[in-house]
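Hi F.,

I've been meaning to write this up properly since the lab meeting, where we talked about keeping a consistent format for the predictions we share between groups. The idea is simple: the sequence comes first, exactly as it goes in, then the structure tokens exactly as they come out, then a line or two of notes. No screenshots and no reformatting. I'm using this chain as the first example so we have something concrete to point to.
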Amino acid sequence: MIRPAASQQDDLSSPDIEVRGQLPDTAQGAAGDGSKAWASAAAGSQSPPPTPPCHLAFANGRWAPGWVWRGTAQEARRYEMNASNQRLRFPGSGGVLRLLSATRSALALIGLAVVVAGLFAATLPGPRETMLRQFFAISSGWADQAGTVSTGTIQAMAGVAGQAREQRALTEFIAKRYRVAEDAIAGFVASAYRAGGELKLDPLLILAVMAVESRYNPVAESNMGAKGLMQVIPKFHQEKLFEHGGEPALLDPEVNIQVGAQILREYLGRFGELETALQMYAGAFDIPNSPYAGKVLAERARLEQIARVKRSA
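Output, unedited:
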């Protein structure tokens, strides 16, 4: 707001009139060194120095330090009107530019969304009804398969649990009967069941042969050179021992059980009769009454009784 310092009757066009007012915002800047600002003004600058809001004196076409405007009232009004127009024009232009930029970005996003929606619609396999029918058909198949798998899994788990109880009962019985540590017997029993499963041979028969041949002694050795739990004679079965590393492998209980079970399985396949196969295994096929086979079968019957109790439990 510009107001004259003199009386209202003074001539506003007089160059000597003093008008007191505050500089517009365009004349304001960051506060700096006052001496440098006024030095610039003294050098003849036609615009006010960048100082905080203050009153300045304008005389002889130059800005000079002071607290009054020395010039015509029209010049003061024109200067302030120009500054006001600048305040109105420049911030408004920036706002318009920002609005245009935001509008352009929004339109780009809308266009991208339309393109993506079109691509998605183009890739749909078929009408909604077709998709629902396919989904229900697949769901029904999953349900049937899940029921079948669940039943099979439950049966398999029950079988595994039953076999574990059976092996544990056999381990306890053999350990007490032959005075061998349960940990060792547990390993022998597990190996017999594995070998029996692979060769389609009764694991109880394998355990019975071990009982008669070595009484579950993994380092037993006979005068004929038979070694280990199943009393395998190395010189007669070199081809079977080759894949396990040769004769020293017979001291490994698992290898000994595996090789002995293979030999017994071969005799069963060759002669087709259990008693003869057992006599051949012992090297006593010409002995009448087959005493060796009788011992093995009697031991197997005892083991079968223990296993049957656990199966029915």
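Notes:
The two ends are 109 Å apart (CA to CA).
Residues 1-59, 66-70, 87-91, 138-155 have pLDDT under 50 and may be disordered.

If this format works for you, I'll send the rest the same way.

G.
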